[in-house]
Every structure is written in C-alpha cells, then in structure tokens.
Amino acid sequence: MPTVGVKRNLLFQALGKTFTDDEFQRLCFEFGLELDEVTTEKQMISKEQGEDSALLAGASEDVIYRIDIPANRYDLLCLEGITLGIRIFQEKIQPPQFKCIKPPPDQIQKMYVKPDTAKVRPHVVAAILRNLHFTQDSYNSFIDLQEKLHQNICRKRTLVSIGTHDLDTVEGPFYYDAKSPSDFKFVPLNQTKECDGNGVMELYSTHAQLKQYLPIIKDSPVYPLVLDSNGVILSLPPIINGDHSKITLKTKNVLIECTATDLTKARVVVDTIVCMFSQYCKEPFTAEAVEVVTADGDSIIYPDLAYRDEVISANTANAIIGIRESPESITKLLNKMCLKSELNAENIKVTIPPTRHDIIHPCDIYEDVAIAFGYNKIPRTLPKTNTIGEQQPVNKLSDLLRAPIAQAGFTEALTFSLCSRDDISTKLGLQSINEVPAVHISNPKTLEFQVCRTTLLPGILKTIAANKKMPLPLKIFEVSDVVIKDATAEVGARNERRICAVNCNKNAGFEVVHGLLDKIMMLLEVPWNPNKTPKGYYLQACEDPTYFPGRCATIICNGNDIGKIGVLHPNVLHKFELTNPCSSVEINIEPFV
C-alpha cells in the first residue's frame, strides 16, 4: 500500500478548513484512507538517514501527514488528488469535467514511432499541459507523483517510464526511436558532460536511486530515445531525462511522454498526471492532445480522458453490502465518490471519470457505495445459515503426528517452500531439472527461489548444514506441503502434504528412520505386511540416485507407493556440505486422511 506524505498546512489550505489530528484521521477513515503517521521532514530524515545526516540541516519542521493510499487508487497519490477527492466527498464541489483539446491539424504536436523501438519498449503515449503555473510546492508534488507512479503501477519503470519536459525548449514534431548505445550522445539531467549510452550506464552504476533501473535496458542491443525535430534528446527511458528540456518553476508548457511495454498502463499513467495537474492550467482541467503516429502508420490521439457509463441496480447494491438505502440515497453516495450518477427508473447510471481507472466491474462501484455509506454504519446481522468451523482433515492429521515424532527425539524444522533448481535436481543426483515435475517461478528474484519444492529433503539437509556445530545426532523432521505438476489439476499443479525426517550421525542410522516409519504407521493403524500383499505396508528395494546403491527402498502402503526410505548418497551429502552420513524417510500422508 503506497504512503503519501503531504504538508499539513498545504493540505488544510487546499481543503479550506483546519482539523485536529483526530478529526482528520476520522475523515480519512470515512473516505477509505488511513492516516498512518504524523511527523516532520526532519524526523523522517533522521529515521531514514541517521542523526549525522547533512540533510538534517536543510530539513523543515513543517508537520507532515503520511497517508496510506489503496494500491489501485492512482488518483490519490498526490496532494492534489487527495484534496480534490475529499472536497467532492464532503460535497463542497462538484466533480470536474476533464477535457482533451485537439488543436487544428496544422498545429497539433506529433510523436513519430520508429520501428526499432519494438526491440526494447514498443509503446509511447504523450500529452501537453498548456499555460501551467508552478509554485515550489506544486512543482515538488508534480515530481513526487511521478515517482509514486513509477513505484506503483509502473512496476519500478519496467512497464512504464515517465518523462516530463519544458515544451518551450524543444521543437516538434518529436520522434521515439531506438539506437545503439554508442550511436548517440546527450547531457543527462543535472549534468554538464555529454555521455553516450555506455557512459550513462557507467555514470549511474553507483547512483542510489537510478542504479536499480539500469538492468531494464542494459543488455538490449538498442536503447530507446525521445528526440525533437532538431535531434535534441529529451530522454533516455527508463533511466534519465535530458538536461536540455528539464522543467523548472518558470516552465509554462509541459510535454508529458510515457514509454512502455504495456500500452494500457501507459494510458492510465498519462491520464492520471493530466487529471491531477491540469487544475493549475490557465484553463483548468484541460489538456492538449498529441498525435502519436505508430511504426505501422496508424495515428492515435492522446490523452484518452475517456468517460464511460455503467448501469447498476440499487437492489443489488443493497443486497451485496447489507444495507437498505433508497435508489436516491445510493445515487447521492456515489456522487460523493467522484462517480457522477443519475437515477433511471430502478437502475442507476454511473459515469466513470478518467481519474477512476480502478473501477473495472460493478462490484467496484458497490465498494464505493459501502465506503460512502460508512463501514461502521452497516448493521451487523447473523448469517442465514449456521456453520461450524473446523480444521481441514489434512491439517488435523499433521498436527496429530507432529507430537509423537517430536517425542521420538526429532526436532521440527520449517523450511522455505521455494528453492533453487539445483536443490531438487543435480544436488539430489539427477541429471537435470527436466527430470523433475517442478513448478517454475517465471521471474525469480534470487537464484535460491527458482522453483516450488517437490521434496522436503533439500530444506532439511540445508538446515542440518547450517547447524553442523550442534552435537550429534541431528534428527530433524518437517511436515509440510510440496508442489507437484499435475495436468489433471485445475491450475496444472497440486499440493501434497508430506512428512520427511533425516537422521545425521557418525553412522547412517537407517534403523532410526525405519523405527520412526514403523511408529508413524502404528499410529495410523496400518499393519506391517511381510507377505507384500495389498493390505498393510512393506518395503520394496529400488534404485534412486539420491540414495546409496542397495540402501534404498520404496514404501508401499495398501498397494500404493507413498514414499522412500534409505541412506543418502555421499555425493548428495557433499553437495549439501555435509560430512556425516545421513539416512532419511519421506512419505505422503494424504492417503491416510
């Protein structure tokens, strides 16, 4: 959930009223927000940077409200959006009408997209704010909104990156192109020396904020560029803008461009910025259109600033929320949430403005009705159907087995559900990960969390390796889920509850894990069957690269394979950095539920 810091004096000035901290906290709650903290700029810097920070000298003592914003409410990520929303909620003003003004064909600014951009970031959208008036506070808010959007909907600039430029310092038409890192030079924002693409990577490789964005395009054969008609580089997205077109307090006309891998999110971002800051234009709540000409020759006008209508039923809203309000009352509640509504017989026509991209389905509208009505005011009722909660059978069985296993001298561990590919393949003696029915993570953050585990064994062996200094024997067990690929399952995979136990000592101690298996089967009332008939359980010799040759067996219970028991192979122990022999048992307990 994003947190927005706003100065209290500016907030109260925009709202036209002074509140106590408790009063404003109640107002936030009624509007669906949460006042997280009341602090000052100096306290924030002290907490983040320490008491010796040089930033403390220039920090102010202005009181700052840190407000938690729902992650899908992009229109509330700045002071302007918060105050506009609250004033409409308090019925002090009517929702504004946002307009996109299209100049005559010979005056409209154009952005031409070159084919090479498809290799790195294929999309661009743009808009212009004309006759804008910045103050220091509104300028800071303008920059801060961009950063909040970058961290939120833009997913740290991987999906969308925002560039804002002083339109009076450049000359259209504009071009969105992609060039080799060595084929261009420009002066990055707030720098004095020209750099090519490789120079930019080197310059910002140690930068506290920008270094995290370098990998997005670093390995690409071409880097995306936004240029004007004179070849002046406005920005190198998603890294940095050019110094030539930087905006200042004196800037009157702002060109906003968003390059993206996701066109829908780019449109949302441009709409959000335009809607929030067009109120500072000479003609409030208006933006000038930009014509984007794609590489295929298609012409598209941005920003969208589109309004759309949804029709909802007042009866459905009452039934879902659990209230009894008239259609007239629900219409009034929706108007307070920036959703202009009109009563049409028993239905309500709701107009969704371009600020409310979070409204996707009628249920989102019902949520706004509930917020405006007040969650605390919704009457409490008993459910029409009485139900009695109880544990899932597999969880109940797991809990019943944990205590006896612990009483047998084993210590319980809780290991990660994700592991590396090697942990469940080559480290266990298999040739490759292709032999394992594992569910892979599409975008793993680290090499340690690439796949969902298919066995509990690697996690326990890692636990033992991390506790080698503890006295022997080390007897560890775990009762948890593994994830197995299954084409018959609804999502292509299924969870399976297992017990795994490992005995690590100066000798393998196969009899220890065998005794534990017998103990578990006795508790489950499954008899030992030396005749190897379907009734009961027995061991059947098998070969598995994880285990020592001739020291491994499959556990057969009621005719089904439920797991393995054996002495671990020395190569497996070596790969997990263990020096003492180990024996293990792992069984699936779901057949006993």
Automatic annotation (TrEMBL):
<dbReference type="Pfam" id="PF03484">
    <property type="entry name" value="B5"/>
</dbReference>
<keyword id="KW-0547">Nucleotide-binding</keyword>
<dbReference type="GO" id="GO:0009328">
    <property type="term" value="C:phenylalanine-tRNA ligase complex"/>
</dbReference>
<dbReference type="InterPro" id="IPR009061">
    <property type="entry name" value="DNA-bd_dom_put_sf"/>
</dbReference>
<protein>
    <recommendedName>
        <fullName>Phenylalanine--tRNA ligase beta subunit</fullName>
        <ecNumber>6.1.1.20</ecNumber>
    </recommendedName>
</protein>
<dbReference type="InterPro" id="IPR020825">
    <property type="entry name" value="Phe-tRNA_synthase-like_B3/B4"/>
</dbReference>
<dbReference type="InterPro" id="IPR004531">
    <property type="entry name" value="Phe-tRNA-synth_IIc_bsu_arc_euk"/>
</dbReference>
<dbReference type="GO" id="GO:0000287">
    <property type="term" value="F:magnesium ion binding"/>
</dbReference>
<dbReference type="GO" id="GO:0006432">
    <property type="term" value="P:phenylalanyl-tRNA aminoacylation"/>
</dbReference>
<keyword id="KW-0963">Cytoplasm</keyword>
<dbReference type="InterPro" id="IPR040659">
    <property type="entry name" value="PhetRS_B1"/>
</dbReference>
<keyword id="KW-0067">ATP-binding</keyword>
<dbReference type="Pfam" id="PF03483">
    <property type="entry name" value="B3_4"/>
</dbReference>
<keyword id="KW-0648">Protein biosynthesis</keyword>
<dbReference type="InterPro" id="IPR005147">
    <property type="entry name" value="tRNA_synthase_B5-dom"/>
</dbReference>
<dbReference type="GO" id="GO:0005524">
    <property type="term" value="F:ATP binding"/>
</dbReference>
<dbReference type="Pfam" id="PF18262">
    <property type="entry name" value="PhetRS_B1"/>
</dbReference>
<dbReference type="GO" id="GO:0003723">
    <property type="term" value="F:RNA binding"/>
</dbReference>
<keyword id="KW-0479">Metal-binding</keyword>
<comment type="subunit">
    <text>Tetramer of two alpha and two beta subunits.</text>
</comment>
<dbReference type="InterPro" id="IPR041616">
    <property type="entry name" value="PheRS_beta_core"/>
</dbReference>
<keyword id="KW-0030">Aminoacyl-tRNA synthetase</keyword>
<comment type="similarity">
    <text>Belongs to the phenylalanyl-tRNA synthetase beta subunit family. Type 2 subfamily.</text>
</comment>
<dbReference type="InterPro" id="IPR045864">
    <property type="entry name" value="aa-tRNA-synth_II/BPL/LPL"/>
</dbReference>
<dbReference type="GO" id="GO:0004826">
    <property type="term" value="F:phenylalanine-tRNA ligase activity"/>
</dbReference>
<dbReference type="InterPro" id="IPR005146">
    <property type="entry name" value="B3/B4_tRNA-bd"/>
</dbReference>
<keyword id="KW-0436">Ligase</keyword>
<keyword id="KW-0460">Magnesium</keyword>
<feature type="domain" description="B5">
    <location>
        <begin position="305"/>
        <end position="380"/>
    </location>
</feature>
<dbReference type="Pfam" id="PF17759">
    <property type="entry name" value="tRNA_synthFbeta"/>
</dbReference>
<dbReference type="InterPro" id="IPR045060">
    <property type="entry name" value="Phe-tRNA-ligase_IIc_bsu"/>
</dbReference>
